[in-house]
Design goal:
single chain; 83 residues; mainly alpha; elongated; Lipogen_MT_Stabilize_sf; Spot_14; nucleus; cytoplasm; Putative mid1-interacting protein 1
Length: 83
């Protein structure tokens, strides 16, 4: 797990800071959502989701995006595994 560091003015817009914020947000989401399976069949509000932000997830429910965000966090923390 990455340790969150205090930001300096210089680091505010750095890639590392952005990654750290994303990981923190996903960790917060993971701790907040008590029963992720209840997100299945909860449709997304299509007005909020930009049509240009398509992913490999075609189901279009909240659970799919929950899993996608957790997967991205893991890849960022541990690197992408090549098979």
């Amino acid at each position: 797990m990455m340790m969150q560091l205090p930001e300096t003015h210089k680091q505010k817009n750095s890639l590392f800071t952005a990654m750290n914020r994303f990981i923190g947000a996903v960790n917060n989401m993971d701790q907040t959502v008590m029963v992720p399976s209840l997100l299945r069949d909860v449709p997304l509000d299509e007005d909020r989701v930009l049509s240009s932000m398509k992913s490999d997830v075609d189901e279009g429910d909240m659970y799919s995006y929950y899993q996608l965000l957790k997967s991205i966090r893991t890849d960022m923390e541990w690197g992408v595994r090549r098979a």
